[in-house]
Amino acid sequence: MTNSKTSSTRPSKIIPNWVIFALIAVSLIGLADSSYLAAKHYLGSPINCSIFNGCEVVTTSPYSVILGVPVALFGVLYYFSFLLLTILYLDSKNEKTLEFAARFSIVGVAASIWFLFLQIFIIKALCLYCLISTTTSATLFVLGLIVLKRKNVSFFQDNLRDYFRIS
Amino acid sequence: MEEQQITKKERWELKRQEKLERQENGAKSRLIKRFLLWALVLAGTAGLIFGMVKLGGSEPDQSAILINAVSPSDWTKGNKEAKVVLVEYSDFQCPACAYYYPLLKKLSQDFGDKVSFTYRHFPLRQHINARLAAYAAEAAGKQNKFWEMHDLIFENQTKWENRGDAEKVFKEFANSLDLNADLFKNDLDSKEIKDKVENDLQSGVKSQVNSTPTIFLNGKKIEVPPNYDELQNIINEAVKNNP
């Protein structure tokens, strides 16, 4: 425990810069993608099928909304919090923040698997922007695993109090 | 007076030194750095979201105009001499087109004497049976039952859209329309019909059609509202402006 505490306050080079850069870049892509989908949901033109995006059956299906909120908006929140967590790490250099983000990324992967299942087996149509989001959340998960591996901690071991301590 | 100036200068000098000291210990600059980092991130994110919202919410390009005017080889119903001409590029397997189908049908019933309605094929690549459906409608057209087949195909879209043997379903439709089965089968495979569908598609590409349904009202692409009342208003307006 004491070991991890000291390591979390020292701005070590355990987590390479490219991982941080990739986390920021992928979060930004996911954020852009889901904002686009959310905007389309609220303001977009009426339904059609397009050469580039396929049909909008996916984004207009009943599964695109949970409790009245379009799932794209959850995506916006998810990627935005991921971005904030990464920046918080850059600011505080508290690696526990990154560990939290790494564990948090399972939420995105789980949601993506569920959406992919819906698209393939229930709606029977794919949507390009949804697939981009699947890719970004999977990438964030992999980056998270890299972070945990570098820190040499397991996925489930955690101590909530350490997460948001700013050194 | 002189003394005061000196003290002023001294005081200024003192302040400068203090500032330098503070900069040396770095606390302030670190704070500024942190502030800049967060400001940059928040501004960047806000900008990004704003941009995507504009992009996602923007109306599709409405500047497209119809290049190929309606010709006798087109399938046209309503008043062919009408001053208000509606041309639809559509895909039989497109769910959105099936959604609009009853709206447009009602439109042609309500405005049949004032408006001409033309259907052109725009089968999208992602729809495996879209071309075959277009061929089936054309083959029925050879026996003067294009619109009847067009209606059947749309009304029963879910029955054939994902089937590997959609041809069988179309043959059943032909049968229910009392079409000559052999003729229908031959026409389904004919090059003439395939060329016609391809021509429609190419004319759509020329007119910048990139989604279905795309509707041109008197040669200008319009955004199709998803409810009948708004659609009716657009046509009413056009009828009023083209007496």
Automatic annotation (TrEMBL), chain A:
Keywords (A to Z) from UniProt: Disulfide bond, Membrane, Oxidoreductase, Quinone, Redox-active center, Transmembrane, Transmembrane helix
TM ranges: 63-88, 100-122, 128-148
Membrane-protein topology: Multi-pass membrane protein
InterPro entries named among the record's database cross-references: VKOR, VKOR/LTO1, VKOR_sf
SMART domains tied to this protein: VKc
Vitamin K epoxide reductase domain residues: 16-148
Matching Gene3D superfamilies: VKOR domain (1.20.1440.130)
Keyword Disulfide bond set for record: yes
GO cellular component: membrane
Annotated family: Belongs to the VKOR family.
Protein name: Vitamin K epoxide reductase domain-containing protein
Organism listed in the record: Candidatus Yanofskybacteria bacterium GW2011_GWA2_41_22
TrEMBL record, chain B:
Annotated transmembrane regions: 35-53
Domain Thioredoxin: 53-240
UniProt xrefs under Pfam families: Thioredoxin_4 (PF13462)
GO molecular function, one term: oxidoreductase activity
Keyword flag Transferase: no
This protein's record includes keyword Ribosomal protein: no
InterPro entries: Thioredoxin-like_fold, Thioredoxin-like_sf, Thioredoxin_domain
Annotated keywords: Disulfide bond, Membrane, Oxidoreductase, Redox-active center, Signal, Transmembrane, Transmembrane helix
Similarity-based family: Belongs to the thioredoxin family. DsbA subfamily.
Name assigned to this protein: Na+/H+ antiporter, NhaA family protein, nonfunctional
